[in-house]
Amino acid sequence: MSEADAPAYGVGHRQRLRERLLNGGADAFHDHELLEYILGLCIPRRDTKPLAKRLIETFGSYSSVVAAEPDVLMASGVSEAAVAGIKFIEASAVRMLQAAVHKQPVLSSWQSLLDYLHADMAHGIRERFRVLFLNGRGMIMRDDVMSHGTVSHTAVYVREIMKRALDIGATGLILVHNHPSGDPAPSQDDISLTKEIIETARRLGITVHDHVIVGKSGFKSFKALGLM
Question: What integer pLDDT is reported at residue 11 of this predicted model?
Answer without folding.
Answer: 55
